[in-house]
Amino acid sequence: MSQNIQSVRGMNDILPEEAEFWEVFEETVRSWLRSYGYRPIRLPIVEPTPLFSRAIGEVTDIVEKEMYSFTDSLNGEQLTLRPEGTAGCVRAVIQHKLAAQQPLRLYYVGQMFRHERPQKGRYRQFNQVGVESFGFTGPDIDAEQILMGARLWDDLGLEGIGLQLNTLGQPAERASHRAELIAYFEKHQELLDEDARRRLYTNPLRILDSKNPTMQEMITEAPQLMSHLGAESMAHFEGVQQVLRDTGIPYVINPRLVRGLDYYNLTVFEWVTDRLGAQGTVCAGGRYDGLVEQLGGKPTPACGFAMGVERLVALVRESGGAPETEGVDVYLVHQGEAASRLAPRVAENLRDRGIDVLFNCGGGSFKSQMKKADASGATFAVIIGDDEASVGEVTLKSLRAGEGVRNEQKRVGVDDVADEIMDSFLDLEEEA
Ligand code: ATP
Ligand code: MG
Q1: What are the backbone dihedrals phi and psi of residue 115, each rounded to the nearest 5 degrees, phi first?
Q2: Rounded to the nearest whole angstrom, what is the distance from the C-alpha of residue 338 to the centroid of ligand 1?
Q3: Residue 133 C-alpha from the chain's centroid
Q4: Ligand whose nearest atom lies closest to the CA of 10
Q5: Which of 119, 210, 281 most suits a substitution to test ligand 1, by most atoms within 8 Å of the C-beta?
Q6: Mean pLDDT in residue range 75-99
Q7: Which end of the chain is more exposed for a tag (fewer CB within 10 A), N or C?
Q8: CA–CA separation, 3 vs 9, rounded Å?
Q9: What pTM was computed for the model?
């Protein structure tokens, strides 16, 4: 016997009931992005593997163990399903010289792939909304991107998402901190786990990002980068904080916030909630001034962030701020030969007028069709029997009388149905 094929572990179907939340989320996100002047860019899911190893860094969780990579069997090219969006976005900006003339604000929405251990809030296929800016040097854009987050949580009706902020300085400043950090970790060799030992000399900063509970105390005591920062880096950091104070956005400085990707410098931030268990970071980002040049473009300052859609939709659902999914306006009931020939035309005429119609497909008695009409949540039933059809009329019946519509059941001419429906919607004054 053959077994049913199941979806790949960690790659989930989003069923209609949940997908409706996603659509409302996406609509909110799109209008929010427009309100900050960000423009869409659509990027491939598959990119050459070296793009990610060069951009994200060889000694990172993502590149070391999380990428879905394969060899194109036709030409032997090494390819990878994108684990994040920034690298591909930067590639596109360089390839099409998008930032050559003037600064840019871009966003994308889509699936990312990481070979992680699936658990709540952590999947192998997940979605991000990514926001990137190119060509801006000052702290104002970093601050703007942080303000954007605060506004979106508000637009989504979410509370309790806190901002963590840090600065990673510039590469030279990190180098001097690095030496001190290595010496410190060497002193605590016995506490380092396998990952940390492996990274001790290649990427010691990343050890600070470890989630291993047995290392936390030691990490908290580790030497801090902040004391290695020069005046310029400090001024940039202060500039970001100034805007946050002026606009009343609370934040916490977290010196351990180093991010899991190598390309960041100066400002880094995360938005975190304690309502999702261990996977509490819903949005993360920062500045990456070196990346465009590192990938072969002209030096271009840049700053961006990515949000985890699964985690945010889970929060929206959990906080009950959910959009009610409304039924359609009309369920179209029809029975009999003449009626069923008239019905599609009536339905299309209604749609011409902007009225949503759920058309009864598959026949059935009036009684069973009316049951489906009730269950559909439609506001009206438009009923056509051969009686009606023979005189060019339909029956209009309110299914949700009182909920914003008049209670009625009446015969109306085929050409008047749309107007009658429009008239039946009570305006607010009438209702009150
Ligand atoms: P984490 O520390 O949770 O592994 P990360 O630093 O790897 O996160 P980023 O690369 O910064 O995550 O991605 C930005 C956001 O995308 C995260 O804050 C999170 O909301 C979401 N995200 C990352 N990985 C996953 C995943 N495997 N499943 C679902 N969402 C994810
Ligand atoms: Mg991760």
Answers
A1: -85, 80
A2: 58
A3: 17
A4: 1
A5: 281
A6: 97
A7: N
A8: 16
A9: 0.90
